[in-house]
Amino acid sequence: MHRTGELYGQFKTLEQQKETASLGMWIFLVTEVMFFGGIMLAYTINRHVYFHAFAMGSNTLSLKLGGFNTVVLLASSFTMAMAVWASQTGKKQLITIFLSLTILLGFVFFGVKYVEYAQKFHHHLVPGKNFNIFFCRDNPSKCEDVSAEELEEESKELEQAERADPDLNSHAQLYYSAYFGMTGLHALHMVIGAGLLFWLLRESVKGRFTPQWNTPVDLVGLYWHFVDIVWIYLFPLLYLIDKHK
Amino acid sequence: MDEHSKAPGLQLPEKSYLNETTGIRSWLLTVDHKRIALLYLVSVTFFFFIGGFFAMMIRLHLLTPSGYMLSPDTYNRMFTMHGVTMVFFFLIPSIPAILGNFMIPLMVGAKDLAFPKINLLSWYIYIVGGAFTMYSMISGGLDTGWTFYTPFSTVYSNSAVTPAVIGVFITGFSSILTGLNFLVTIHTMRAPGMTWFRLPLFVWAHYATSIVMILGTPVIAITLGLAAMERVFGLGFFNPALGGDPILFQHLFWFYSHPAVYIMILPAMGVISELIPTFARKKLFGYEFVAAASLAIAVIGFLVWAHHMFLTGQSTYAAIAFSFLTFVVAVPSAIKTFAWVATLFGGSISFDTPMLYAFGFLGLFLVGGLTGLFLGALGLDIHIHDTYFVVAHFHYIMVGGAVMGYLGGLHFWWPKITGRMYPEWMARIAALVLFIGFNLTFFPQFVLGYLGMPRRYHVYPPEFQVYNVMSTAGASILAVGYLAPMIYLTWAAFYGKVAGDNPWPATGLEWKTASPPPTENFHVTPIVTWDAYDFHNRPDLDLDVPHAPALAPAHGDD
């Protein structure tokens, strides 16, 4: 296995090898843009047609949790960038520390996401036969984690939204299709990223990364930043649809 | 057969990529692009004959107007599985993953692709995707049409849609990784002196193909992913019951699946651009224009998708724009066709088997391309939409174009791949049989479509029977034309006459190394000082071979 930075057989120089790896990663990220692009198009069209339902769905998300997760991911991008810097300047211990911090922040994100997803399951907001945007209004006793004021606010919003869109429940389900589709796909990318980070961590503990050879840290860094950027788009698209009034 | 052995007593190299290591593990765990190409060759051929079997079932069933042979449900499954197998598991990987994989590193003078392990990974992904789709075929089949249109596929179909969609989804990543590998290889792995405008046009064609692969395939992946999620978990984007939009699915589907046609035809065009200069012994006319036309097709090809949807009730203005762009995308294809014909003009043409396929390609692609313009015309499309005219049109492109190119390339490079020559006369006869069988199968379908026979119906009015009988008879001849190369090429790989390094002779770098090549491709990294197809400035080539006419006089474009 190619772990210590020797030259692979198909290349002539280390520079060529590094340039090749880097170009490969950038092209891969282009394919990822197209991949997320398809679902974002579906989101955009449905949001345009069913704005009231999408705004209503967005209002049932927790801005606090989403905002917190945004900060967590931005911080993880910072620690990742520091890990890349440490690997380029040969600070071997710092690589390990920053990679560990990045993984830690990634898991904080997963934890918050778990809380959010679990809440949606309890509130019958998962697309499918049991989807019911009115669930908490109609069964306040089963939504104890929502305060009375919040419930009251939500009932008002629901009433307004239903007046604007008589088939609110179906169209809100489309919003939640977008929510789970996009955040689920994003979370899947985070899981893959976390796996890659664990691999980097193992290698960095062994002291494999040097200023001469740190391509994997560099490339996983690119990937991690990309996943972060996707979230920077998802947060306003999903959480902030109707927050301007 | 004799005419091909330049000198008696040619020997195969003692060590080549074929015999350097042995055993099943050395093949299944290989990272050598040449061996991976052969893995693809075996698996793609397997899927081709599966798809061919379904095609035979369709044609046999349509022998009689009332369709005694298959039940309507079975018939739906047959044409669906024919389409899915042929499109996703044969046509898309055929030339790129087999011939491209084998030839691109050789042509640019590299020891391997940029990412050999990813190359092997792409083959395994292809096999896993194929396994899912095969599972769907034996566990209830698939009856949605290869287009998986919603909401039928996501809500109503009783067939095994989910595993088929997962299979196609997975296989898409194999295509993405192949495209990525080619792009990076062409950018960073070229030998000294191999500038962009010295690259063989086969490489340019694959560069354009790879762009389509990396930009289009992720979109079909997410689209089919959403469709699968909709079928399994009830997501609603494409479900009108929830307010979702089935037309959105069609837009996303064709955003990939129209450019996918160019994934099939561009590499075939690349093969033709190699064959014609070689067998006309003349520099290709308008090299730069042909290279640029490949890129133009890749780019404009992304802007025509909604011409599959003229009758969905989309905006008339959108339809006019898409119709116009459909006419525009025909221009670069015409540029290429004229360049090929201009190369033939004044050339010293020999009629070896690969050249017969190239001629077949020229004629059939012309018919297929021009009938595409019929379909791109808004008024006429209303009449012939979803008829056998469409079926005939795209088979002229995909079989008449892509498969002719594939077989031509396979014959052309078979001596390089195996080190041995195929039996020339048998191959010429097979090429002729294929051409006749193809036209007999698909030309009557133009007539059928024009007369109004809809596609995908399992019964038809009795007055259409004569054309259907012709088509089925043609399909039987076509089957012979496909079986023959499989048999004699396999035979030739073991028992054919030893070919020598450059039997044609041709100008590409792949012919500068041994046949079959050593594992590292070139013992010494080649240095390129010549333009592509430049027979006149290549003293290193032995142009005096017995079977070929003398070199054409140097004139033409330069």
Q: What is the alpha-carbon Rg of chain B in Å?
A: 23 Å
User: What is the CATH fold-level name of chain B?
Assistant: Cytochrome C Oxidase, Chain A
Q: What structural class results from the helix and strand content of chain A? A: mainly alpha
**Count of discrete domains of chain A:** 1
CATH class group of chain A = Mainly Alpha
Rg value of chain A: 22 Å
State the name of the first-level CATH class of chain B: Mainly Alpha
Summarize the structure.
The complex is a heterodimer of chains A (245) and B (558). By secondary structure, chain A is mainly α. Chain A has helices at residues 14-49, 51-59, 63-89, 92-122, 135-138, 148-164, 168-205, 215-239.
Keywords:
heterodimer, A: mainly alpha, elongated, B: mainly alpha, Cytochrome C Oxidase, Chain A, two-stranded antiparallel ribbon, 15 helices, 64% helix, globular
Give the topology, please.
The complex is a heterodimer of chains A (about 240) and B (about 550).
Chain A: H1 14-49, H2 51-59, H3 63-89, H4 92-122, H5 135-138, H6 148-164, H7 168-205, H8 215-239
Helix pairs in contact in A: 1-2, 1-7, 1-8, 2-6, 2-7, 3-4, 3-8, 4-7, 7-8
Chain B: H1 24-28, H2 33-61, H3 72-108, H4 116-138, H5 152-156, H6 161-188, H7 201-233, H8 246-280, H9 287-300, H10 316-344, H11 353-376, H12 378-384, H13 388-418, E1 420-421, H14 424-451, H15 465-495, E2 497-498
Antiparallel strand pairs in B: 1-2
Helix pairs in contact in B: 2-3, 2-4, 2-15, 3-6, 3-7, 3-8, 3-13, 4-6, 6-7, 7-8, 7-9, 8-10, 8-11, 8-13, 9-10, 10-11, 11-13, 11-14, 13-14, 13-15, 14-15
